[in-house]
Amino acid sequence: MAGSRKEILIAGFGGQGIILAGVILGRAIALYEGRNAIQIQSYGPEARGGACRSEVVISDEEIDYPMVTKPDVFVAMSQEAFDRYMGRLKPEGTLIVDSSIVRFDEGKIPPRAYLVPATLAADGLGRRIVANVVMLGAFGGLTGLVSKRALERSLRDTAPKGTEELNLRALAKGFEIAEGLRKQDLQGLSGH
Amino acid sequence: MSQSQTLKGIDYLQGNEALVEGAIAAGCKFFAGYPITPSNEISERMSWRLPQVGGIFVQGEDELASIAMVIGASWGGLKAMTATSGPGFSLMQEGIGYACMTETPCVIVDIQRCAPGQGIATKGQQGDMMQARWGTHGDHEVIALAPASVQEMFDLAVEAFNLSESYRVPCLIMAEEIVAHMRDKVRLRDPSELRLKERRRPDIPPGKKIDFHQLDDEAGIPPMPRFGDGYRIAVSAFSRNRMGYPITDRDLHGKLLRRLSNKILNNIDAIARFETSFLDDAEVVVVSYGTPARSAKSAVKAAREEGIKAGYVRLITVWPFHHEKLRALCGGAKEVITVEMNLGQIFGEVERAVARNAHTSLVSSPGVEPPTPWEILSKIREVA
Q1: Alpha carbon distance, N-terminus to C-terminus of chain B
Q2: Using the beta-carbon criterion (under 8 Å), do B373 and A65 form an inter-chain contact?
């Protein structure tokens, strides 16, 4: 039940593309990184606005149990999701939070926390709807669990026609933000 | 349009999507269904995939009409299927009985959700397993399969059509929300590598009035004419004589009833499939089916790492239930643990199979999520 297994939890509200983010990530890893990746979604009866979560389990071995229990990485894209799932993150786990949406007590976040203003960055690209892809780019850059190239290929498979370029720019923006945050880490400026 | 639009190769799909591709690879050409979560991805994909292969998609006015259309389409000569969830599965029971009695090949998919009543529409359970067996009235046999992975959603869709065509019986795919919505890498097998089965058709020319209900082969499965080909045949769900006309006779009814059951039970060795591992020296065997089997496998592997002699059996075919085979598989085990996502339905069947030789226990969850590997592992430790 351990080994190379990594559990990823992405959570937010319906309409943000939370489930799609998990699908793009799972597809990138399973088809273009040659590892196993199972994606599971969880949502309420509402189409938009309700709590929504997408789970991805990554492993080099066969994945038996497909559910995420103690995430290694938690990507939080709404206040409700942050408040509800923060306690599940492994103590040494990585938090990636959309700091343009989520408010939190700086003292209560884990040592490996990255503040990514994904929604603001997406607004900057002209379409708030790509905040999920900005987050995916940041995830790739910060965790190293998936390459930019694999995510690009998966995005091209998945993005609706006519939105490919916008989505690829959003992905690049996420990687760029991640690079900035990692430099801060190296210089010991992150404060955490 | 042709079969050439069957999708091939590796993809990353949801269970429901993979199931549709399996059905189409098996030659499904008709789908009728009524929307219900968590089965909707099946209807949605069928609605654009079937026209690409020259098939027909109908959104029925309700579940009763949908199962009736599936039966009609099958008599029209098409491989036909519907998909629903618990509340709709309840409504389809009359039609399933009609299909059993008229020996109509068809595939019925139940993506089980938390029940009873409306339950929880977006969460899985294995609460309809006994309904699959006894939901429709009267003595009857059906075949029910329980997929545990996205690949199996594809593979067992093919298998369901093969079994249904071979035995002229409704074949049920009893999946649940988790495997239906799970996404994983899946190999969409080329139809050329699938051994597809087709129902036996009459080898006599149309026209003459013939006892189509009696032209048995050794297995007791009569050939099936197609409506419109000119054969003269009476088809109804009344108990019948060899010409298809209603009867009230004890012997004739008994003969029909036994043939309908025995065509399945006499072939149970070919129909009932199991996945097994670590059984050779197993003292504790964990029996499960569907998504919870993934937890069970994880727990059995962990127990083995601790040196506990644990074994694993997964029922791929749940109905007909092969008690004798399961008893043999559990062999010398002193304890047999059943794992399922309901309060204990198949547990009763496992007990019937093994209780004379082993102590039995149940690890279950009420749905939403399967029992965890840790819950199962702690039970294994307790009884080992």
Answers
A1: 59
A2: yes
Q: For residues A144 and A165, what is the distance between their CA atoms, to the nearest angstrom?
A: 23
Contacts of B370 in chain A (CB under 8 A): 67
- B193, B221, B256 - which closes a domain: B193
Note whether A152 and A168 are within 8 A (CB). yes
Pick the last residue of a domain from B193, B222, B249. B193
Which residues of chain A neighbour B301 with C-beta distances below 8 Å? Answer: 1, 64
Q: How confident is the model over B183-231, as pLDDT tens digits?
A: 999 999 998 899 999 999 988 888 877 777 765 556 689 999 999 999 9
In chain A the domains, ranked by start, together with CATH numbers, are 6-186 (3.40.920.10)
Domain count along chain B: 2
- Torsion-angle region of A188 (φ positive above 0: left; ψ -120 to 50: alpha; else: beta): left
DSSP states of A102-113? ----GGGS-SSE
What is d(CA B150, CA A42) in angstroms, rounded to the nearest whole number?
17
Residue B178: which domain range?
3-193
State how far the Cα of B101 lies from the Cα of B90, in Å rounded to an integer: 18
Of B122, B182, B369, the CB nearest to A45: B122
Set of chain B residues whose Cβ sits within 8 Å of the Cβ of A43 = 122
ipTM: 0.93
Whether residue B175 is contained in a domain is answered as yes
